[in-house]
Specification:
single chain; 162 residues; alpha+beta; two-stranded antiparallel sheet; Transferase(Phosphotransferase), domain 1; globular; 6-stranded antiparallel β-barrel
Length: 162
């Protein structure tokens, strides 16, 4: 029986960091999400970064910014017949990978391709700045691509008000 968190059935691990593990999750309708599950040993500073990210993402809704779906500090994680409470964040699944990987695997982009992504980045940044949010950690690893090659700005852990 697969592991679950609340209404999400968990699948493969998409990534792992100091403070959390990111798993693919699926709801009852088959929609896929990225589920950031906080490690139980996560310290206060890491929890604060997650709260910062959630706080800013709640106020942002733009085609070039990863969408926040759900937040829970007391989600029920079930696996192999046991249950425990965990904090988690469900985000839009951006399945095309990081811009960093695309550049590192394919080399420099042609000018038209670079312009295509740069325009999307500027549109997302313009929206964020008009909303009073500074990302403060922009790098190719935090710029994700969808399956149809749309850019999404991710990881708002270091965001701050302008």
């Amino acid at each position: 029986m697969p592991s679950t968190i609340d209404e999400f059935t968990l699948g493969k691990t998409l990534g792992e960091g100091v403070s959390c593990k990111v798993k693919e999750g699926k709801d009852a309708q088959g929609n896929k999400f990225a589920i950031k599950v906080m490690n139980s040993s996560t310290d206060a500073q890491m929890k604060e970064l997650l709260q910062t990210e959630v706080g800013y993402l709640k106020g942002l809704n733009h085609k070039n910014i990863v969408n926040l779906i759900k937040v829970s500090e007391q989600g029920t994680y079930s696996s192999k017949g046991s249950q425990k409470k965990v904090a988690y964040v469900a985000l839009e699944l951006v399945s095309g990978g990081e811009l960093f990987d695309w550049v590192s695997n394919s080399g420099e982009f042609s000018e038209p391709v670079a312009r295509y992504y740069f325009k999307q980045l500027l549109e997302g940044l313009n929206y964020m700045h008009k909303a009073g949010v500074a990302h403060r950690d922009l790098k190719p690893e935090n710029l994700m691509l969808t399956h149809d090659f749309q850019l999404k700005i991710a990881d708002f852990g270091f965001a701050a008000p302008i």
